[in-house]
Specification:
This protein is α+β, with helices and mostly antiparallel strands. The chain is built from six helices and three strands; from the N terminus they run ααααβαββα. It has a three-stranded antiparallel β-sheet. The protein is flat and about 50 Å long. The two termini are 18 Å apart.
Length: 153
Amino acid sequence: AFNRKHAARELKWFGQEYFERAAKTDGLEAAAYLEAREKVEKVKAEFHKLLDASAVDAVVCSTTDPAALADLINGDHRGGDGASGPAAVTGCPHITVPAGLVHGLPVGFSFFGRANDEGRLIRIAYAFEQLTSARRPPLYWERTTPYPRLART
């Protein structure tokens, strides 16, 4: 209701379709939700088993594609979902640190670890930052809005 009342400001660029769709679900007791949670717990258990069997403290990967400019017509149209999805779904800790720049835009590395092992993960990520010195001060670009206020239909 707040968003609709203040639509000129709150919904200027994008709507609230995801919120409305979520509000129409059957809730946390729905069979589909419970089945999905069961699958997530299995994936989480397999992930921990793999870490243990391999004697690995953390998994490292690129966080996502290089940053892209927002497109007010087509939205965020990156190729993939990035590396945070599995951690978000399973509840495993995930930390992202700067890994440098690609054509002046930032990229990061993600570190994933075991549940409740955030301290070790932070130490590993911090060591990476210290060794690589990849952090760069942000560059500030003149803000441009290529399209005057777009009307939502």
